[in-house]
Amino acid sequence: MPGKPPNRWIIAAAAIFIQLCCGALYSWSVFVKPLAAMEPWSLVQISATFEICLGALGVGAMVGGVWQDRVGPRLVVTVAGVLYGVGFLVSAISVEHQSLAGLYIGYGVLSGLAIGMAYICPVAVIVKWFPDKRGKAIGATVMGYGAGALVMGPLAARLIIHLGVAATFEVFGAVYFLVIAVAGQFQGNPPLHWKPAGWVPRAAASKMASRIDYTVRQAIRTWRFWLLWLLLVLNTSAGIMIISQASPLTQQQVGISAVAAAAVVAAISIFNAFGRVAWAWISDLIGCTRVFFLLFAIQACIFFALPRIHALLLFEAAVCAIAMCYGGGWSVLPILATDVFGPRYMGGIYGWMTMVTWLVAAIPSPLLVAHVRQTTGTYQPAILTIGCVMLLALPLPWLAGRAARRVAQQQTISEEALEQA
Q: How far apart are CA 167 and CA 152, in angstroms?
């Protein structure tokens, strides 16, 4: 990136638009009932589209992260925009011709790959451009992902009523292609070792931050990589369990209708997005590992209390707090990973973490919870189990913080020894 670096705030704004399009994934439920009404497919067959998309998302994040470390984010995001548009076009054609396999390929595989590729690039880029405001910048960026369904869901519902499902896929495919491809042209890495003018790292941050940029292969071979991955897996499993079953869980626990439960689902989406900003901002003040300790402690308390909560407002506050913690984990983890492994290859490193997390946590967790509900008639065993897991996980953030500080101290000792020699 020769010459004067571009305005980093424009890069951040473009990143938010990309994330808004990626976050539309969570509006999939809008398409479920219309598809069930017009196609000869079962609800399970239609719902499998979302699970395929989640799996492809993880693969796309890994591929996109490693690729953008080599060629830069601009090309990767542009390709993602093309894949996104093509995926929705294939979905539209498949709906018109009643091809379930085509829907799996279009919305599931192609769109999932595109979302993963487009999602990971801004996260890796923003960490590098905002070392002085990492929490705020990352939080605002991934908030766009959390808020995508709030923007796209109501719009998709209206378009389906007036245009039908196939035409809605076509409209959204064109919009996603244009927005992501154009916004992608503003994505780029700063010059190597670039820092904002006049910025000096805080003492607390410098003690945690690695001054060595680990490659993806080097990072994956360390136990610290898998410890950070475990933090993300546990937090994601807890949150996605509630998010995936929010409507039926609310109806059973509080005794309200599906229409009334929809308001709770909307509130969960809002707090999921808000948590990504709030917890990332808090991490700038107290550190990432302390934030993860709070995420686990808060959720442990809520999960143990949740089966006994039957008042609507109190129940809604509890599940929204869990959604905030879920969103916070996704915004704070890339900051913590940057501290431990350095920013240069963060796209590939965090891409691997994202892929394995989605495959291990985000896909099985909703299925297991639904199975528990189906076999026992209640969500209580699953809720109490995840509460115990959160409680047992409390030492893990402390262990991650200790490991990061130890690595940074060893690097400091080595640098001082070299200077003296």
A: 15
The whole-angstrom separation of Cα 248 and Cα 386 is 18
Tell me, what CATH number does 288's domain have?
A: 1.20.1250.20
Residue 1: the pLDDT is 43
Residue 305 Cα distances to 20, 235, 310, 318, 388, angstroms: 34, 18, 11, 9, 12
As given in the structure block, the two tokens for residue 288 are 């990432």
Token output for 210 = 């690695």
| Percent of the chain with pLDDT strictly greater than 70 | 92
Percent of the chain clearing pLDDT 90 (strictly above)? 44
Is the domain of 180 the same as that of 224? no
Angle at 228 between CA 269 and CA 370, to 5 degrees: 45
Domain assignment of residue 156, yes or no: yes
Instruction: Write the CB contacts of 213 (distance below 8 Å, at least 6 apart in sequence).
Output: 341, 342, 343, 344, 345
Give the number of other Cβ atoms within 10 Å of residue 230's Cβ.
Answer: 16
Q: How is residue 355 written in tokens?
A: 């892929």
> What type of residue sits at position 355?
M
Which tens digit of pLDDT belongs to each residue from 312-367?
999 999 999 999 999 999 989 998 998 888 888 888 898 899 888 888 876 677 77
